[in-house]
TrEMBL record:
Pfam families: Pribosyltran. Keywords: Glycosyltransferase, Transferase. The keyword Cytoplasm does not apply. GO terms for molecular function: glycosyltransferase activity. This is Phosphoribosyltransferase. Residues 9-150 form the Phosphoribosyltransferase domain. The lineage of its organism: Bacteria, Bacillati, Actinomycetota, Actinomycetes, Pseudonocardiales. InterPro entries: PRTase-like, PRTase_dom.
Amino acid sequence: MAEREELTWELFGSASRELARMIADSGYEPDLILSIARGGLFVAGALGYALDVKNLHVMNVEFYTGVDQRLDLPVVLPPVPNAVDLAGAKVLVADDVADTGATLKLVRDFCAEHVAEVRCAVVYEKPHSKVSCEYVWRRTDKWINFAWSAQPPVVQRAGQVLDA
């Protein structure tokens, strides 16, 4: 098996804190953090606490269906954030990884039409990502084992992945 990047819970704690420090040091003060579910929920929560931002929103986007298996295009799942809630805000989009960048591009483009400014923060960015994120903890071309998805689910639920 190919070498993988391992992000343990402990390392995630350090990574999210360093990512928050980068954002704070840049002078960017987001009004809200928009997490891309599911992996971005962990990042957004950690950044929300570290940056003292309580206004967190979620976009559910389905793209990956397994290791190196993805849909042709990312799909936004309901509920879609209300553009009125984002109007005029400085938004920080948070996700665990910018792999192809397709998911981040979809969310950033959605925001760009409604917000004052949008920036992206990720724990990892791959070299072939379509989106160059403003805040990146680490760059890698390896597959990443995240603490929250390294083990199989406790239960298997049918019908959870959309068919394209």
